């Protein structure tokens, strides 16, 4: 549970049975990422406290409410931080993965019937993104859970709940990186490294990783980065360095940090005639982006990508099966396996830049 400004506290919580069209899941493993840290710092929009955070987990269905047909008790599942109700106009639109039930359009701090399934010492506790994976048991609507292959190792495939598909899909779905192209990836955390895997799988010939923490460079190179640079090593702005390195700028630039200054730099490092800049990191709430619109006039494109553009219910099971067939290697990102009781230490490691992905197991 969490109250802004304090570290997480581990509490005994009562988890009510699932109501109609809801599913109760026993969480087996959960990761943490930059977004969870935004929640803890109070910079994630529209969170109510006290809350059980966590949005990158994997588990087993414990029970289902009336009318649930997509999963049954015993199924291995991944909770979806981006729902796919399958019925709204956005779900029916093949060009977006942003179901109208997502937290950007409606609050997910309570179940759809506006009540909570969590109680602690008699007091209501809020849900997070409807899935709250930092709980041994958690209840979610059936639009936010999907069955995966029975053979999937839950302590690895929990990364398919957010970090890996977010980065990988930004490259393969949103940018549609072309073979032989040049790419720049700003931020080499779990998300940025997954972007690199997507660029590499797409056949990019030059992939430049950018980070202020040199400790991330070795993994980035293992995953396909052809070179890695630290903006602090240069006198001139990093966008000028990238334009010089590539002649006229990169074909694709990805921002995977969640900062406005690095998004502006990513935009300015793109090829003016045909470059594509993809915003992957979530900028601070209320921030504004300022740039010369002439940059876009000659053909540069600025795009956003949430959860890698994947319609999650359709795609996550296929990605997990692809993982079992060794098509992706997201487990390279796992630097720490910790017991859940050490979740605060995990956040310390993430903030200190000492970990990429921490996985917590019950
Ligand atoms: N310039 C370059 N790199 C930076 C800068 C900067 N100014 N600031 C931070 N970084 C690097 C960090 O050193 C780190 O390696 O960005 C990386 C961010 O990685 P993580 O904190 O591990 O975050 P991650 O889980 O990858 O998520 C990145 O994506 O999910 C969204 O908005 C969310 O902020 C999150 C972002
Ligand atoms: Zn929908």
From TrEMBL:
A GO cellular component entry from the record: cytosol
Protein name per its UniProtKB record: Enoyl reductase (ER) domain-containing protein
Superkingdom as given in the UniProt entry: Eukaryota
Alphabetic keyword roster: Acetylation, Metal-binding, NAD, Oxidoreductase, Zinc
Pfam families in UniProt: ADH_N, ADH_zinc_N
Single GO MF descriptor: all-trans-retinol dehydrogenase (NAD+) activity
GO BP terms, alphabetized: retinoic acid metabolic process; retinol metabolic process
Family, as annotated: Belongs to the zinc-containing alcohol dehydrogenase family.
Cofactors required: Zn(2+)
Gene3D superfamilies: Medium-chain alcohol dehydrogenases, catalytic domain, NAD(P)-binding Rossmann-like Domain
Organism: Sphenodon punctatus (Tuatara)
Ranges where the Enoyl reductase (ER) domain occurs: 5-360
């Amino acid at each position: 549970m969490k109250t802004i400004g304090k570290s997480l506290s581990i509490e005994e919580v009562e988890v009510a049975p699932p109501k109609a069209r809801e599913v109760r899941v026993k969480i087996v493993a959960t990761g943490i990422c930059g977004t969870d840290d935004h929640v803890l710092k109070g910079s994630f929009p529209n969170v109510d406290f006290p809350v059980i955070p966590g949005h990158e987990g994997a588990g087993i269905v414990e029970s289902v409410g009336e009318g649930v047909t997509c999963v049954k008790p015993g199924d291995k599942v991944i909770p979806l931080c981006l729902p796919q109700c399958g019925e709204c106009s956005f779900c029916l639109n093949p060009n977006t993965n942003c179901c109208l039930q997502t937290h950007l359009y409606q609050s997910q701090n309570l179940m759809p019937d506006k009540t909570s399934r969590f109680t602690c010492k008699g007091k209501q506790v809020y849900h997070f993104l409807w899935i709250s994976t930092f709980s041994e048991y958690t209840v979610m609507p059936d639009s936010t859970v999907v069955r995966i292959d029975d053979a999937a190792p839950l302590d690895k495939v929990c990364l398919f709940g957010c970090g890996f598909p977010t980065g990988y899909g930004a490259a393969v779905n949103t940018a549609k990186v072309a073979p032989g192209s040049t790419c720049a990836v700003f931020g080499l955390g779990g998300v940025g490294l997954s972007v690199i895997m997507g660029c590499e799988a797409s056949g990019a010939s030059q992939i430049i990783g950018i980070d202020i923490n040199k400790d991330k460079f070795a993994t980035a190179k293992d995953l396909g980065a052809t070179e890695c640079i630290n903006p602090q090593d240069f006198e001139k702005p990093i966008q000028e360095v990238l334009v010089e390195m590539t002649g006229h700028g990169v074909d694709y630039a990805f921002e995977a940090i969640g900062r406005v200054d690095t998004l502006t730099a990513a935009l300015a490092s793109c090829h003016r005639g045909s470059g594509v800049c993809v915003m992957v990191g979530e900028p601070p709430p209320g921030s504004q982006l300022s740039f010369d619109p002439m940059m876009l006039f000659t053909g540069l494109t600025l795009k956003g990508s949430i959860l890698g553009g994947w319609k999650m219910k359709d795609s996550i099971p296929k990605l997990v099966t692809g993982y079992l067939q060794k098509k992706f290697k997201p487990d390279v990102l796992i630097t720490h396996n910790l017991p859940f009781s050490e979740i605060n230490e995990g956040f310390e490691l993430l903030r200190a830049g000492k970990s990429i992905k921490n996985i917590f197991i019950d």
